[in-house]
Amino acid sequence: MTTKSRAIKRVAVVAAVSALLGGALVSCSSTAETSGSADANDLDAALEAGGELTYWTWTPSGEAQADAFMKEYPNIKVKVVNAGTATDEYTKLQNAIAAGSGAPDVAQVEYYALQQFALGDGLVDLSKFGFGDLEDSYTPSTWSAVAINDGIYGLPQDSGPLVMMYNQSVLDAAGIAVPTTWDEYVAAAETLHTADPTKYITNDAGDPGFAQPLIWQAGGTPYKIDGTNVTIDLQDEGAKRWADTWNQMLEPGLLADIPTWSDDWWKALGNDSIATIITGAWMPGILEGSVPEGAGKWRVAPVPSYDGSATTAENGGSAQSVISQTKNPALAAAFVRWLNSSEESVAVFLKSGGFPSTVADLHSDEWLNQAPDYFGGQEINKVLLTAAENVSTDWSYLPFQVYANSVFPDTVGASYVSKSDLNVGLKAWQEQLINYGNSQGFTVNVG
Prior knowledge:
- The chain is α/β, with parallel strands linked by helices.
- The protein has 2 domains: 3-159 and 317-358, Periplasmic binding protein-like II (D-Maltodextrin-Binding Protein, domain 2, 3-Layer(aba) Sandwich), CATH 3.40.190; 162-313 and 394-446, D-Maltodextrin-Binding Protein, domain 2, CATH 3.40.190.
- 47% of the residues lie in helices and 13% in strands.
- The chain has helices at residues 3-22, 29-34, 40-49, 62-72, 87-99, 111-119, 140-146, 168-174, 182-195, 208-217, 237-250, 263-270, 283-290, 329-341, 343-351, 359-362, 365-368, 380-388, 401-406, 408-418, 422-439; strands spanning 51-56, 76-81, 106-110, 147-148, 151-152, 155-156, 162-167, 223-226, 229-232, 276-280, 298-302, 318-322, 443-446.
- The protein has a 5-stranded mixed beta sheet with strand order 2-1-3-12-6, with helices on both faces. Strands 10-7-11 form a 3-stranded antiparallel beta sheet.
- A hairpin with a 2-residue loop joins β4 and β5 (151-152).
- α4 packs antiparallel against α15 (343-351), α9 packs parallel to α11 and α10 crosses α11.
- The two termini are 35 Å apart.
């Protein structure tokens, strides 16, 4: 993407966020239309009555899940629309909410963006439909992501506990033991690159979706939200712990300057020049399907620790939410309930390579005992389960996180470009976020 196109896209994001947040601080008529007493019985009645729904999603299993739903409920038609992934979808969704028309009934929303839409009255509070009774069905970290300000604004679809995937053949050839601590990881980065300058412990070209889970895993809690009162401290103990550790690899050039998901990244994974990936638990299926030349080489391990604890963080993950603009909130809520809690739907999702947020599926013997040949016969899901059970639930995202992520390249990204102190970039990012939040009607404090 060119500098010009990135700038144009960022302007679109800022405009859309401003429009959405402008309505967040005043009463919103759309919520009045969907408020009132309701309960789980209304969902069953809505399924029986039938109707039509529009569902925005980018998940590979979306069409198949909708087909399975319509087979079970033939009096309901679900139109599945891929409105783009992540920010592309959010910009369209924000514009539709601000315009008062054009939004779907149900949309896939990543956990980091949920609070923004919930605060802007863009989502239906599903607690009135008895969704609170489903809490124990999901991992604590994914449930805490959808339970916002005493409401429930979606059901978790998947989970992304942070783990380390590593190329066993590369580490063995360099005589490097699998790192279990971040100190060992930094030492491995130096050993590997010194022995062969074409090889790197991992890549990082500067990505907020990567940096923030690492800050989370380091014990950082840089964002604290109390309604429209926001506290930001990107120099708290955890943020500094991550930056100081990462500086030891960034500044001497021990990290491959390759953007994740780029063609060069896939090539590097295939030719053994990147030894590890710090990523979410959803990655194994993607790696197996995208890097066939890595078969038999890769393994999965816990993410390195700072203090010996197994604590980790979520890297990615989405919920399905009911949009306030829907004319049939009960039917939309019933679809979400089926989508992310029925055995039939979750089975379709898992078949497509998704990583579950549902406790029952995480503890299923069939799932746990899988030993993919691609990973040398390792029972990788047992490692992933341990990660899912050790995600810290202390983390919160900003109510303007979509905007925050869009300006990360201009602030923290500058430290990556110059291979200089990440703390400087974090401070610049914090200053920009404080100014923006205050301009949008929030009261933003420095932690």
